[in-house]
What we know:
The chain is mostly beta strands. The protein has helices spanning 8-13, 38-47, 57-62, and strands at residues 2-5, 19-20, 67-70, 75-89, 93-103, 115-117, 123-126, 130-135, 139-143, 162-163, 166-168, 175-178, 181-187, 190-193, 200-203, 208-215.
Amino acid sequence: MYWAFDNIKSKDAGAYPPEPLELSYGHRPADSDRLRGTELQRAYTVSGREVRPADCGPVRVLSRFGQVVRAPGRITIQREEPGLKWRDFQPESSAYGRVRVGGDPWHGTESGFVASWIAGSEYVKISTGILIYFPKGHLLYQGPVPNRQLVDDPAIASNELDVMAGMEYLVPGRSRELDGRTYGIAALNIIARAPRDDAVVEVRKGQVIGWFHLVAPPASQHIDQLPSKHGNRS
């Protein structure tokens, strides 16, 4: 994959390049013994050793996998009820549909802020100023920080943001040849849902708001039970 600023204005405004994910819940404490097999089951009852997420190999890998993206400016999001049929532009905020957004100004958005509405719905699109180039035949997953209920890092805002997950696919009109290979181009915009009730979500400039990684083909999949000839005894 490659990344680039979507334009010079985003670069000048302070958009953040993607960076590798590294979450604390995937690290065992320095004085913690590694547990294997039945030791996980006996750890607490025998030695009083608390079993933690980092004792699970798949969880440990996921906590250090993929890339994160940061908010290029301060953002506020709240629900607008009843929903507005017409756009409402104010000096400190803008609203349409069931969302009101505010914070730092941003170029190229309909709201004039980093976050903007989506077709008068209850969802917002957060601009990051970043483009991702991903190879043909692959998909680009993007969504919330994984296992976010385990993340108490104040630099990560996705515990408050209701971030949606999705996959980008190559569209011929949004592609480019790089060194003889075709790449799809995805604007790394984060889709989030307006908070419930009267809550206001505030995201500080530089906070982590999303996670993405490359998904290998195929684009569809199915799963079957292992045949008995291969050792399945169920």
